[in-house]
Amino acid sequence: MMYARVIPVLRTPIGVDVFDYQIPASLDIKVGQLVWVPFRRRPTPALVMEILMESPFAKKALPISAVYSSLLFPFSIIGLLQWTAEQTFCSRATVLKSWVRNLPKRPLTLLPMSPAIESKDDSSPIHEQWINDSEEMIITRALKSSSQHERLLIITPWKNRVEFYSKQIPHSHILHSNLNDGDAFRAWSRFLTEPTAPVLIATRVGAWLAPLADRVILDEPENDDHKQDELAPRYDARKILTWCSQHTNIAIESYGLTPPLTSQATAPVIDVPLHVHIRHPQGGSSIPMIQSDTLHELRTHDGPRVIIHPIRGVSARLTCRDCGWRSLCTRCQFPLSAEFDHALCHVCGLKAPLPLKCETCGGADLGKSLPGIERLKAQWIKNEPDTPVEWRDLSNESMDPPFPQKSLVVITDGSMLGGGEDVRRRERQCIAFRRLADRVAHIQGRLIIQCEESSANQWSAWLTQEGFDRWRTKEWHERQLFNYPPAVRLVKIISEGDEQHAKQWIEKARQTIKIELKEVRGPFAVKFRSAARAPRWVYHLIFSSEVSDQQLINELTPLAKSAFIDLDPIAFLR
After folding, report:
1. pTM
2. What is the homologous superfamily of the domain 127-256 according to CATH?
3. Confidence of residue 478 (pLDDT cuts 50, 70, 90)
4. Using 50, 70 and 90 to split pLDDT, how confident is the model at 116?
5. DSSP for 157-199?
């Protein structure tokens, strides 16, 4: 009797992820195949990871029910699955479930897959290019790859970007988290089986398909949306591609604009007409958040005008001008923003009636906050009816569409670019500003940014090689001084329960971890949790930058059943 060790397509606890089944004589089962297995009295798809002559569970092993489809994955997929599970402190079954989602009960009739790409022992680094206008380069490379009948996978940070490339690249498929399970399965399974060697354009959810492609292109590697930072498993598409470059023969190319702090690569110069307008109380205009010199430029510009204002709705927060009271969301305690006829929570989406007065002092003036984009639009129509303007906020849906040729683009508040009030705020600002400036340069436009005097010099410096290098060196030294990545290794621990439970967890960690622990920061309460959800606490464990991933995995895996562990967090918020 032969046995198959399989990984079910289910979410399971860490350490509970493989099961042994009998192989019936009537079935020809191979490693990498998807099969149907009985699991808790219901048929469940599973991935065969190993064929066994014997099993310690032989007496209890049930027979495999059937082969799922003609899909046959190479051994490198199993290696990537094992590596991702270790990196994210999840079971292999949970990782597999996040990759293939809910497989259809009746899969399409699929053509046989192309021969699997063999693994290799030597390392082949990702071919990185830091260039202006990388979109055109990626489209050109995709068209060339398609003409050479290569199976091409493009990984890009955002859904809107996926759809943009799809319109530019004929006969391409798309894959992102907003697709339903059936459409997602059809997208990736056709990518693997169609003889025409199609192009698949995906967000991070498609990174696991890299070992099955002939060529992979990574778009905008500097953007952190390649990392899953909310749900488990918290994998990073960039790290998955790094693993593939070391363990497979896949050709991997990366096209970005802003090199990371750890890189010595030269940042490309961005040549765009830039005007920095310092915000001053005496320089205001009839339009909130628009300085008088900016308004003059908008009036006199001969061409399209675009104003980017980061704050959505009517006002940023419902705040009492008399005592500072804020109207909070009843579900998660996040401050509510004012829309036209209701209050809105931008964290959980709760809609509530607009409060009529302050609950603390009874004041009726609840407008002490920055004005939102809707208020600016209303004032613009009232005061500048003959000057047409396109309004955008900082959401991907609003920012991704191309700007009209020769536009004047105005940013009302540069401090809000990039978001996130943590130690990486400047880094995110730099990435977001350079990306915007490059887009404006591409359409031969002009750029105006309004800012405080303290940051006036940084914007133009970021667009030059010398200025960017000075800033990168300074930022690196500050990270060293305050013990933040990449100067050190920071591991983020999220513990669920009361504060006492969090403190008990960290004491156990101190006793368990044998490698040098330089510092422990926390616990910090996770804000804006609803009353129905258990409180969460965050710890930051600081290790030397010389500590390897494998050392951390070995030390932290025994603790992973009682906390969420993120080896490489992209946000250093408390």
Report:
1. 0.89
2. P-loop containing nucleotide triphosphate hydrolases (3.40.50.300)
3. very high
4. very low
5. S-HHHHHHHHHHSTTEEEE-TTS-HHHHHHHHHHHHH-TT--E
